[in-house]
Amino acid sequence: MTLFSSSSRRATASVVTGMTLAGAAAAFAAPAQAASVETWDAIASCESTNRWDINTGNGFYGGLQFTLSSWKAVGGEGYPHHASKAEQIKRAEILQDLQGWGAWPACSKKLGLSGADNAPDAYAAAPAAKVERQSTTDWAAEQRAEEERAAERAEAQRAAAAAKVSKAELAAAEKANKKNAAELDRAEDTVFVKPGDSLWKLAKKHDVQGGWQALYEANQDIIDDPSLIYIGQELVLPVA
């Protein structure tokens, strides 16, 4: 915030000195067209992040960052940051009436305040709020997108699990079918040795192509001597 120049302070002091007490009181009265509290809140947000009791030791005090000399010049008592928000605004209105918004050059420019304007530009006054709303909107959209992606992943996992089960069931069914087929083939293409049987008799009885030699070759894993077979042995009949 801009300080009073020495010439300004001298001019103000001489005016106050030449006035009656009533005139002095009138000089420190709030201007007729005072800015709104919202405007001062916007300036305080820019100057001090709305900390009306701030004193960082840099020579500026309170929510509107008065210097002690400017505070005293507009009738303030004590220190600005010890005064209430209402009192700080009251003294700021007097300062603004005397110096205009140039008393807060950076923030008034940022807020779009100039000349006799009493309200900050709508866009400039709330850039943080606009960014916050935009961020909230972006976050909500991203959240919805993530939920949709999660739902898609879950559906894909369920489909994969179902396909895996179906594949396993199909494999089990195929295995069972092969086993059944093998058992059927075995039932149809095997014969058990009975008393009095020989390879020659069995080959002739079952019309084995190639005779007893073919029957022997088909069962070499269990027959060591073609002339010696045992009752109860299960022999495979070669397929023609």
Can you walk through the features of this model?
There is one protein chain. This protein has 240 residues and is mainly α. It folds into three domains: 6-121, Lysozyme, CATH 1.10.530; 126-160; 180-240, Membrane-bound Lytic Murein Transglycosylase D, Chain A (Roll). It contains ten helices and two strands; from the N terminus they run ααααααααβααβ. The protein has a two-stranded antiparallel ribbon with strand order 1-2. Helix 9 (199-205) packs across helix 10. It is rod-shaped. Belongs to the transglycosylase family. Rpf subfamily. GO terms for molecular function: hydrolase activity. InterPro entries: Bact_Kbp, LysM, LysM_dom_sf, Lysozyme-like_dom_sf, RPF.
Q: Could you please say which CATH topology of the largest domain applies here?
A: Lysozyme
**What's the quaternary structure here?**
single chain
Q: In the CATH classification, which architecture of the largest domain applies?
A: Orthogonal Bundle
Counting DSSP E segments of at least 2 residues, the number of strands comes to 2
Order of helices and strands: HHHHHHHHEHHE
Number of domains: 3
* Helix/strand/pairing category: mainly alpha
Percent of residues in helices comes to 55-70%
Radius of gyration equals 52 Å
